[in-house]
Structure formats: C-alpha cells, structure tokens
Write a structure and sequence with these properties.
It is a single chain. With 596 residues, this protein is mainly alpha-helical. It is 61% helix and 5% strand. The chain has helices spanning 2-23, 29-38, 44-54, 60-72, 74-88, 93-97, 114-122, 127-136, 139-156, 163-176, 181-194, 200-206, 213-223, 231-240, 246-255, 260-266, 274-286, 293-300, 306-316, 322-329, 352-371, 377-386, 390-403, 410-419, 434-446, 449-460, 465-474, 478-488, 495-508, 510-513, 517-530, 534-537; strands at 549-558, 562-571, 582-588, 591-595. It has a four-stranded antiparallel β-sheet with strand order 1-2-3-4, sandwiched between helices. A hairpin with a 2-residue loop joins strand 3 (582-588) and strand 4 (591-595). Helix 8 (127-136) packs antiparallel against helix 9 (139-156). It is flat and about 95 Å long.
Length: 596
Amino acid sequence: MIVKMIRILLCLTMVIAVDIAHSQERFSREDIFSFVEDLSSEDKSVSEASFKKLSGLKSDEQITHLLQAHHFYYQTSNSHMEWVFKAIGEVAVPAVFSGSIDAEGTRKSRNPRASLVLTNYLGTRALPHLMGKIRNGEFLERKKAAWAIKDITWYRGYGDTDPQALAEALHQAAEQDRDHPYIRGFCVEALRNMKHEAALPVLIALLDAEDAKKVACEGLEQLGASAEKAVPRLKQGIVDGSLPAEAITALTAIAGPDIVPFIMKNARFSTFDSNDKETVARGFCIAPHPAAVPFMEHLLWEENRRSVRAARFFALINHPSSLKNLRKCLTVRYPVDYEGANPKKKFEGTLTVLRGVVDLKATAIEHLGKQGDVQSFPIIANLLDRDPSIIVRTAAARAISEQKYNGDGVIESLKKCLQQVDSGYSAVGHRDGSLHEASVLALSHISTDEAYWVLYQCAVASEAKHKCVTFWTESKDKKIFEKFLSFTKKKRLDDLSLRNVLLSQLRRHRVHYAIQEEKTTQVRDRFLISVKDPDHFGSAADMSMDGRYTVSIDYEFYTIGYAIVIIDLAPKNPHSNAHGPTLLYKEQGESWLPMQ
C-alpha cells in the first residue's frame, strides 16, 4: 500500500514538473518574433495559438523580445498587441519600465515602443509599480518612473489608483529631487494631470516654488470651482506680482466673471510679455466680464494671434461694443504680397501673422453670422467673393447659409465658390470640400429659382459636381424635385447622375407620381411590347442564364413618364444570395428607352 502511494506521489510530481516546465517554456527571440508576425495571420487557429503563447510570457528577457518584435512588426500587428499586453498584465511592467526613457529624460529606449505599451496598453495598472519606484528607486529609475506617471496621467488619468496616495507619492518625489529638474518637473506635471482635489494642497504649496508655480496654476485651473481654497493665495500673487499670468487664468476658472474687476484693478499688466497677454486673454474668455473690455479692445488690434483671443472674447460677451469690434475685424488686411495672390498657390499653415488674420476674420464672421448682424453681411458677402483665404470664404458661406442672406451678387459669388477647386490648400483647419458643402447649403437655404438653377448648372459641370448631385439626390421636398425635372428640359445631366437622382426621387415621392394599381397591368403590357432593351426584354434575352436562376420582375410606373424595373435573380443553389439589377426607363413617344 505504501509503495503504491509513493508511486502515485511520484507520478503527480512528474506531472506538476512537466506543467511547470511547460508554463515556463523558454522561447527564443526568433520564436517570439515569429509569434508576433503570426498574430496577423488570416488563419484564425494560427493567430489564436500565437496569442496563447505570447500572453503566457513571464520573464523580463522574453517580454523585452516581445517589445522589440512589436516595434519590428508595428504596422501589421499593432491592433493585436493591445490584447497581448492586457493578458500579460502587471507582470510586464518591470521589463517595459526598464526601457521607458534614457538617462537624459528623452523618449528613447532599449525596449522599442515601451512608452506606448506603458501608456496605451498597461495604462493605470502600471501606476502602483511606478509609485514604488519614485519613492525607493535609484536615480535613473525615479526619473523613468516620474516620466511614465506623467504620461499615463495625461492620457489615461489615474484609474483605480488611490488619488490621495498618488498625490502624496508625487509630492514626496518632487521634494526629494528638488535638484533634479526632470524628476521634479515630471512629478509636478503629473499632479496637474490628475485633475483631482487630492492634489489641491500640494498645488497650493507649489505656488511658492519658483520652478513649479506655472504648472501649479495650470493644475488649479483644471480643478476649477473645486479649488476655491486656492483663491486667497492666487489673489495675493496677483497683487504682489509673485505669480505668473497663469494665475489670472486659474482665478477666472475658479471664481468666474465676478473676479475680473479685481484682476483689472490689481494685475501688473505692464510687466507682461506677449505670451503673458495671450494667457490673460484666455482667462478672460473663460469668464467674460465687461470690466475686461478695454484690455481686450487694445489686444484686438495687435498684429498677432492674441487678437484672435480678443475676437472670441467679444463673441462671448454681450456688450454694446462687441458687434462694432467684430465688424472691424472683417476689414483687417493681410500682410503685403498676400492679397490678390492666387489662393491655391499660397501656403496658409505656419506664418503667425497671416494665420492670425485668417483666424481673426473667421472668428468674427462666425459670431456675426450667428447674431444675424445686418450691417456686416454686405462685407461678409464681399469676403466670400474676394478673400484669398479659403478658411475665411468657407466661414462666410456658412454665415450666409445660417441667415439665408440673399444680397446683391451673393448667388453669383456662391456659384464661383462651387466652380473653384476645394482641395489641396494645406490650410490648417480647413477640410477639403467644406467650402463646397457650405456653398451648396447656402444656396439651398436661399431657395430662390435662381439659387436652384445655379445648383443644377453646377451639377452638370463644376468642381462641386458631386456635392450638387448629392443635393438633388437627397432632397426630400417634392417642389424641389419638380424644379429639377423642369431644369432637365433646359440642360441635361450626364446619364449616370440623372439616373441616380431620378431613382432616388421617384421612390421617395412614389405616393405622388406612381400610376394607380388597377392601371399597372395595362401599362405593363404596353411597356413589354414597346420597350427597346434587347439585353433584358428581347427575344434572345435569357436572364435565367440557362436555368441557373429563377427570375422575378417587379414594375413601378410613374405618371411623369418613367418606369423602374427591379429584376430579382434567385439562384437554385440554396447557399448563394439573390441579386439582380434595378433598371430605369423613360417613355419617349411610343417606346420605352433604358437610362444607363
């Protein structure tokens, strides 16, 4: 009996040893690269087997190889790698973390794509390990951990991690490494990124630190009204000039518009440089108040992008001077040698002054359009026709659309917009085709016979042909379809566009145009006798393809001389899908002719 039990124990031990050996199977670097490549295999069994092997990796060395393979095959397997790292979980953190940044604090790595894995795949699950590192790690490890926490909190928040514990760990690391700007800076940025009240006491304390007060103000701004305890210190810093301009933005975010008179009275604007002024303008846009109007009016006419902030301020505030100031924005001139140039050849992307004028005009047009300011629309219509910036012209078309403005020459200007190229401008903020979309919408809202005729002409031939055909195809108004039919007698669309519009509109308005059911048989018999379509209805036509399909045909006849024929080809093979064409015919004299 004892001998038998010993044998059983020996067998169990061997089984366990085999299982352990299997679970700790050591794959070579080449094996792991092969598994990652196989993740994208079209053979599901191969990809599932590779996933199972990769998700069981445990050692730092093998996970390092996995990271290298991820980098090598990034374009083909990125979508699969997220699940691999999620399956491995926190076990991967040490290996991933060990190569997250180099000794200089940059995003280079011995383990390629390590930062992506930490931030996107492991995310907040890595925080407990990283918090331990910033407390007790070596200098280089603390630097790497601080950077990783900053990145994770920026993109992923803090997840299930205790925010109080995280704030304390970051504060401790920031104080411990006061002489190391990378570690301290990363920790302060992570406190800002938390956006949690647990960081509030630390952020208030950091207002007294010269190297951290700016980021601390940004963190308080993120907290908004919940950072009310910081108001006394922020007000003191504004009065004595010990805090940067970001303190004004933080104060407006926390206390709202009521704090603006205090800021205007006590802030030392004479000491602010151009970047500080833009920061202050952003704060006044957060909490618009009439007390800030003089400052923002002065800012509005400076030739830089700060004036755009001022325009947004006047768009937000209900003040007697708002419309007047925004109208003046429409008359701002571009830099020398830009006006009058071919806008297709001008690059609108990076020049600060040029971009500032473009954004200034577009912002003013947007608000004036929403307000329906009658005095500004003649100017806006002129910009639609003449402004060299496609962003400004698009904003003008949208404003005209919103208010259905039909002043002198507007329809002709919209026609010009539809006839010009609307792609390839490299204009930051402009989506290819958006000028055409806005112009089509404006003409449809103006909704006069002249406007509809322009839409039809541009559907025949223009750069915006597709947009105009789409308008006629998707319109739900019966009167618009009747206008379309009348226009076809003057000028014909190409066959495909005409067919698509007719098919869509006849079915949409079938209740108005369909021949009564009791007359359908008589019309169908006449149709079958007179139709001129040998491929489908000729004596030699065989839609069944030698009996492989069962053919069924539905007919729709319309009082305006059109017929829709739906041919359904049902295969005799039960595993195949039914299919068949939809044909459109037009009655001409005694015959029915197909429209291809």
